[in-house]
Design a protein that fits this description.
Layout (H helix, E strand, L loop, with lengths): L3 H9 L1 H7 L2 H13 L9 H6 L1 H15 L8 H12 L5 H19 L5 H31 L8 E10 L4 E8 L13 E6 L8 E6 L9 E6 L8 H8 L6 E8 L11 E6 L3 H13 L6 E7 L8 H11 L2 E6 L9 E3 L15 E5 L2 H13 L7 E4 L8
Parallel strand pairs: 7-8, 7-11, 8-9, 9-10, 11-12
Antiparallel strand pairs: 1-2, 1-6, 2-5, 3-4, 3-6
């Protein structure tokens, strides 16, 4: 437990930290990677270049410091981040290194304001947070290791199949090299894949949503080729270079975003490659013979970029579920298709009692969440997944 004096001292430094902004995290990451370059094998350097990780860390520091009197309000964020950490196989020693560089960053940036009392208070605050993560992550590691087909750390898998889903998305099916069973997961969760692309100087670890319901034998991920200014090292390598029979390391399935059978109407809402976890949810809903109404809404630029069209149509028609698509750049006269940006007023939704699952770009999900709340959906019934560093809507 932190003393009231520690909390007071930490929070007194917030104006200085907020004034420095992401300079704090710029300095932190530069310092850490200079002194501990081996961590480049863990951190997503693409997110470093884009600035996403720096912003996420800065916001996390501020949020934690502001809520030291009531850390329980951060429970959801802690759970999401802890799950993500397990698919990087983060260990207690990593927290020691991160904590050291965080304290030294503050010392170097706050200069005369970083007194002995401030240092001790921040060390105490960081220790509480680190222990919170270490404890929860060990629970998750142990739980998965003890499951049938479970494991801790890396496990070797080979590429069994590779299928084009749309102009930018390809699915990859992996089977374990040891030919033993693989652990069950919740539909909506992701898996960590680790390898060293020939195009990178470091090991790369990425998380991709599992895109089918669990079968105990294989895992399937569906990956969007990331183009543009921050070209995806891993996604392009998987698309262009990974061949059938190639070996990769996988970290056990993780994630706190998944379909939960609450015996209520379900609405799945996705955009772009956010359709990936929705396919696993559709599979699980179908396998369970779900007795409540299901609606699937998807937004996409055009038909060429629309993945899983046949699978979605098949699942929905088999069970009498509603499904609608919005194409932003294409005219369509199909009864299940609208033109332009997604508009929830064009369809009938169970706003009073339904559970809503969102996956897609952050901007899209912010819009979707705000629109649903306007329609009367309680925020507690809106569940979502954010790609990349942790973020809130």
């Amino acid at each position: 437990m932190l003393s009231s004096q520690d909390i007071k001292i930490v929070q007194s430094t917030l104006p200085l930290i907020e004034q420095a902004g992401t300079q704090v995290t710029d300095h932190f990451y530069h310092r850490m990677f200079t002194h501990n370059p081996e961590l480049k094998d863990i951190f997503n350097l693409s997110n470093q270049h884009s600035g996403k990780q720096k912003v996420a860390l800065f916001e996390a520091i501020i949020a934690y410091a502001k809520n030291l009197n009531n850390v329980s309000v951060l429970k959801h964020a802690v759970e999401r981040i802890a799950n993500k950490h397990t698919s990087f196989h983060i260990k207690p020693d990593n927290y020691v290194v991160v904590g050291h560089h965080l304290i030294e960053t503050m010392r170097e940036l706050l200069t005369v304001h970083f007194t002995q009392a401030v240092e001790e208070a921040w060390k105490a605050a960081y220790g509480v947070l680190a222990n919170l993560f270490i404890h929860r992550e060990e629970e998750l590691y142990s739980q998965r290791e003890s499951m049938t087909g479970g494991w801790r750390g890396k496990r070797a898998f080979s590429l069994l199949a590779k299928t084009t889903e749309s102009s930018l998305v390809t699915s990859f099916i992996f089977e374990p090299v040891d030919q033993q069973p693989v652990m069950h997961y919740q539909s909506g969760q992701y898996i960590g894949i680790e390898l060293k692309p020939t195009t990178s100087d470091f090991n790369e670890i990425r998380q991709y949503s599992l895109s089918t319901a669990p079968n105990g034998k294989t895992y399937r991920i569906s990956v969007k080729r990331e183009t543009g200014e921050h070209k995806g090292i891993m996604s392009n390598y998987l698309h262009d270079h990974l061949k059938l029979g190639d070996i990769v390391d996988l970290h056990a399935p993780a994630g706190d975003f998944y379909w939960q059978d609450r015996q209520k109407p379900v609405v799945l809402i996705s955009a772009g490659v956010g359709a990936t976890p929705m396919q696993a949810m559709l599979d699980s809903l179908a396998e369970s013979q779900y007795e409540f109404p299901v609606t699937y809404l998807h937004a996409c630029e055009n038909k060429a970029l629309h993945s899983f069209t046949k699978h979605t149509e098949k699942r929905c028609k088999e069970h009498g579920w509603q499904y609608f698509t919005w194409y932003n750049q294409e005219v369509s006269h199909d009864e299940h298709t609208f033109e332009g940006f997604i508009n929830f007023n064009q369809v009938e939704l169970p706003a009073v009692d339904g559970d809503f699952y969102l996956c897609g770009p952050v901007g899209f999900m912010k819009y979707a969440k705000e629109s649903l709340i306007t329609l009367g959906v309680e925020p507690t019934r809106i569940h979502y997944e954010v790609f990349g560093p942790h973020s809130t809507l």
